[in-house]
Amino acid sequence: MENRATKSNVVLIILTSRGVRFFRMETLAKQLGVRLLARGLWLATAESCTGGWLAEALTSIPGSSQWFERGFVTYSDKAKEEMLGVRTETLARFGAVSRETVEEMALGALRHSHAQISAAITGIAGPDGGTAEKPVGTVWLAFAGDNEPTLSVLKQFQGDREAVRRLAVTAALEGLLERLGGHDQ
User: What pLDDT is recorded for position 10?
Assistant: First the structure.
């Protein structure tokens, strides 16, 4: 069997003075920006375990101020409650890493912004914090839009803390592109 590199399975990593750049993530963010701009949509993000990495990937694209409205970094439960309106009862009953919480985060990002579409991420990046029910690498993503049902997705990533966070951001970008009609390979 021949191993062939295609555009969809190659991640070009280059060490620069600013560290490692992940060009797959950059490509996805550019594609997303083109789609949002073409549709006249604004995007908001709500992040927990990724600590703003999704917003950073988006704002690294020149011209992102024309389609990226704002990002919420809500690492603590209190921040999720205060900034996004996640209900205390939801956090107590289901925990911060749950379908219920991530959906409330995505909807809260819409309610507390001027965006028409949002993405939310919450998870356990590790190396600690995992349980038998929610092991390290468990990540919930949600995508919400005006007049559209909220979609949530559970992912189980492998790797160290940075890998889990990077994969979560990439999954969010891919999910947003799918929400907007698929993405280019």
Answer: 43
Residue-range domain boundaries for the chain: 13-179
Mean pLDDT in the chain?
A: 90
Ordered DSSP codes for the chain: ------TTT---EEEETTEEEEHHHHHHHHHHHHHHHHHT--EEEEESTTTTHHHHHHHTSTTGGGTEEEEEE--SHHHHHHHH---HHHHHHH-SSSHHHHHHHHHHHHHTSS-SEEEEEEE--SSS---SSS-TTEEEEEEEETTEEEEEEEEE--SSHHHHHHHHHHHHHHHHHHHTT----
At the top level of CATH, the class of 13-179 is alpha beta
Q: What confidence score (pLDDT) does residue 24 get?
A: 87
